[in-house]
Amino acid sequence: MEELKELKESPITEEISGFKSTSKLKSYLGAIFLMAITAIGPGFLTQTTVFTQKLGPSFGFVILASIILDIGVQLNVWRIIVASGKRGQEIANLVLPGLGYVVTTLIVIGGLAFNIGNVAGAALGLNVLFGIPFKAGAIITAFIALSIFLFKQVGEIMDRFVRAFGIVRILLAIFVMIAATPPVGQAAVKSIFPDSIDMMSIITLVGGTVGGYITFAGAHRLIDAGIKGKNLVPEATKSSVTGILITGVMRVVLFLAALGVITKGYAIDPTNPAASVFQSAAGNIGYKIFGIVLWSAGTTSVIGCAYTSVSFMKSFSEKIDKFYSKIIIAFIVFSTIVFVIVGQPAKVLVIVGTINGFVLPITLTSILIGAHNKKIVGEYKHPIWMTIAGFIVVAITAYMSVHTALTQLF
């Protein structure tokens, strides 16, 4: 395979494999965790619990299928963006003039709306932990998130914050999973031989893990860190797969925790499914752990969403690039103010969610077309099988997006 040959022959493969370059290692880890942890937001927790309740052990198959599709998306996106040294919107504009502006508009609007949900999730986490009122919790969360962007070394600080809370979140979830004593054997069998295949669940998971702004979170972080060029594609490949596997581990851990609780006959609270799983598995301690997990999920998603959404505006104006951190701060402040004054606009989130579903097929199509344009990627040759796999994902997600939109409208 050409990509494996690249990996072996790359002049810096030994450096990355042995992690001799501390600065590059930090940049790769930062990109990996930014993508992975941004995907594991408040909605991720609820979504996993609800689908486990619906599908039981067979939800393991849905997770496995979504991981494969997610890898197909991120392999293409990370490799092409790093090879070209251009962000997603820049590639889109070169493929079709003006398309980059359309994509940017969709992602920024979607990012603003979903960030309101992220702020709400973090506020709920603080309420669970300390009984802090929701509005006060939202303001505290926003202050912590935006304070990161007040420092000159914003990239390094953000990487450390996201990485630390990502690891803590996974470890706490593993503790709850163990306490739930799930039927691991049954889940493993049904992950390969499910009772039924729920396509909607698969597409929902794919959209939640690599949809909208999340698609580009890690790749754009690498570009900002100066990691670009054909010779760095093998390392981008490793990093993209690692990021997806981290989200997969968290999804599996939460799935097993929920499955353990459900198979024991505990009732799942429909108003807060994830919280009831944590509480049923580990009592009051589990409930407090849920608060920590939810707050960290909301806060890191606020940071990742703001950073990535604004990165789509960065290349269109020198002023945006100059005041990058300040615009990110304004992005976070705006989302928080809307939540504090109006509350979480459920209907707006549903509408934007539907629109956001079209972002992945549009952006991935432009990326795949750009992969075979020498003006964009130079001498880099993108593997044909990756292109084919990418277009299969485009077809599936486009179909499901249209189906979902028509269902909501009619």
Automatic annotation (TrEMBL):
Pfam families: Nramp
Membrane topology: Multi-pass membrane protein
Compartments where located: Membrane
Domain of life where this protein originates: Bacteria
Record's keyword annotation contains Cell wall biogenesis/degradation: no
Protein keywords: Membrane, Transmembrane, Transmembrane helix
Spans through the membrane: 28-46, 58-82, 94-116, 128-149, 161-180, 200-223, 244-267, 287-311, 323-342, 348-371, 383-402
InterPro entries referenced in this protein's UniProt entry, alphabetically: NRAMP_fam
Full protein name: NRAMP family divalent metal transporter
